[in-house]
Specification:
two-stranded antiparallel sheet, alpha+beta, 4 strands, Alpha-Beta Plaits, 2 helices, 16% helix
Length: 62
Amino acid sequence: MSFNPVVDHEKCVGCEECVDVCPVEVFEMQDEKSVPVKGDECLGCESCVEVCEVDAITVEET
């Protein structure tokens, strides 16, 4: 099973919490928004979902 992290850029406030908490560095900041640049490395731990205060991140099973 693999996972696909998705960021809703309309909700993202650019706090960088997901960038800091991700154990495999899936996210990076681009234009002051979080972007899952290595989504294929996502472990599905949902740490990013838990730390996002504006509920901008979801992790889908693929």
